[in-house]
Amino acid sequence: MNGRSVIRIFRDNNALHKGHFKLSSGLHSEYYLQCALVLADTRLSAKLCRELAGKFRSKKATVVIGPAIGGITAAYEVARSLGIKGIFAEREEGKMALRRGFGLSPEDKVIVVEDVTTTGGSAREVVKLAESYGAKVVGIGAIIDRSGGKARFKAPFKSLAKLSIKTYHPDRCPLCKKGTPIIKPGSRK
To answer: Can you list the domains of the chain with their CATH numbers?
Structure first.
């Protein structure tokens, strides 16, 4: 599976949208990837995440963790493919936290997985959270890297496809200046 075939899956499932979007990062963009539409198909979800898991098989991870909400399904499917535990972090009072009885230990080797990476902010928050438990982060993965390879992490970062999609700070957004109505499809409020 190459990057083009992954993007084709998104197009075929009407999951690549054009318009004016406010991303979870707070940035604006003309394009939005709605991974939930792709990951809702269990066959596609398993196929994509099995491919992503393969990029980390040698890391001997013990846990895969994803940021809620977009990373939950991807992290679970990657963990299932690796035969290890899959958990998720969620916001509590504005910060990523492990809830629902989830925990990590210094013996854990962690892979952080999300659906789409734009700036890498959510993944970095989850890395920091895992490290606060003493766990070692051995890799970070995303189905789509929409930063075009610009997102940087301390641990190795792998994706199935890279896109260079422009993002704008709200005060410099040409779509705002044109008066194009904005949509906020992400999960972070």
So the answer is: 3-178 (3.40.50.2020)
